[in-house]
């Protein structure tokens, strides 16, 4: 397939022949070459420069082969590829560059359609005749002249359905549209229906085009036939002959307009009754399109955009309800996703052998918890990561109760390496213990592991029971937040920042003397904070006391950098959450594997930089000769540190804490002509890093994924609905001292009762 020569024409006009075909007269022409590698933005920029147009103020169109009636628009890379598909065998192809300001005149002489209408899939319409009442939508009217402001129009409550009946409409005159931008947006819909033989990808596009076209032309339509094979529509005005009939092409899903009567006698499109009208379904479609363009858009933002663009005023609850329905159509049912979990778990294990997956439900089949640890993650942790795991939780955006438990490690380049995760209905001690049991089963290792986690999780007992000889380090961030909550007293908000700074200094302090110095500074500021810190078990968070190896990591929130995208997205079905995590892991492993193939250093880049800094600091140190393997190192202030090269030990404790030689150890090793890299932890080597990412996560095909209606047996039900945030409404309590107004009886004129409870005979 050769690249066609594109003849770009502009400045002329289209004329219509007696048979309905179009021809281009006048203007100039230039020739350019277009290939499969050409991007739409590049093509548009070249044409804009060629004709001195603004890139956003022109439209690019072309004819289909052997069809001089319909023009197709090129507006994206996909449209450009379709253009090459259609004309790949042609030597030359005519392309017409039209300034947008001429689009109205263009529409009057020729049919125009885009390469693909942007629509949101809807459920197939039922063949039954249904009657439904649509909720009225308000239009904010704007007077175009000093005349009285028109009353806002509401949607009619006449019966409507997908198969038969009238569209409930919301009228707003062109003068009521709030800006030129609104009018232009509605004007764009005038070309949704361009003429006889116009083609659509499916029946949904036909319906959507008809709705938008009727808004722009100012009339309502009535469906006479509306099913998966044919659509027959007439103008709802009495006696108006306007008609359209479209049907599906055999053996395809494509629809084509077969019969068309474009004549209106009701005044539609003539300016005498050109009232843009919007049915509830059209407005709902607009909401869905905006959600499709930006999945993270907020309901209030959509309501404001529709108000500005179309003058339609929507309630927040309406937009939110439509957004939920659209999201469910795009992403799938939240409820049905839970019942698909057994299939997904089996598929993950089938495609990724060695992956640990465990799914639990409660007695009533409601979702309880799900554990997933991919083989690639387990292999990477055991092959190249330090025995250090960070445990944390994160709330998931979902209408059902669901929380995320995570276990993550750190690779040799100080990057996050997710090891396992679980989705549970609630965060409690039982679910955390279960998570650790599953993790232990997936990681059958006797090597002691250090866990960094919040001390409030009550994980200490579970860690010691499940992972024997392991260590629990408290997350200092959570510890600091706990201190802020517990510390009371006047002006505490003014000094709490300084106290927290000293707390972090105490945690990082490598020696006992340095730790004592930091907390003494805290005592001079607040004796209460000093006492609190001493009772907070420093052996679990201070470097000078901690017995395990945590490589100077004092917080557990390292996994947030990987899972933060979960909080940025709108609510997803549980199966989508799992699949998206898998995609993120696949991308992470592949990217870092490719990056490490370019490394030439023995250590990872981050550790290599840190070691070079220690080498630079060692230049000012003096080593005292020693016949043994223990040396004294003196700095320029006269302070002496003792280094034992056999034990990989220095009295400053930086070597032990970090896993690579400190400046004192570097000075000794260089003095006795030893290789520094032989005294670095193996976990920092480039070789270990490549082992960490040597296994990949395999894709999970969904070709044989059962449709919701195919799952006759309910195996998993959703967890309970998430409670609405915020305090419940309370009854007003009158302040003490406020006397209630006494009751007066209108019958006997007495006090303390009313006529209902009055005992006086009437």
From TrEMBL:
> Domain named SWIM-type: which ranges?
641-673
SUPFAM superfamilies per the record?
CAD & PB1 domains (SSF54277)
Question: Which CDD domains does its entry note?
Answer: PB1_UP2 (cd06410)
Residues spanning the signal sequence: none
Entries under PROSITE patterns matching the protein: ZF_SWIM (PS50966)
Gene Ontology MF, one: zinc ion binding
Q: What keywords does the record list, in alphabetical order?
A: Metal-binding, Zinc, Zinc-finger
One Pfam family this chain carries?
Answer: PB1
**PANTHER family, alphabetically?**
POLYPROTEIN, PUTATIVE-RELATED, SWIM-TYPE DOMAIN-CONTAINING PROTEIN
**Would you tell me the protein name for this molecule?**
SWIM-type domain-containing protein
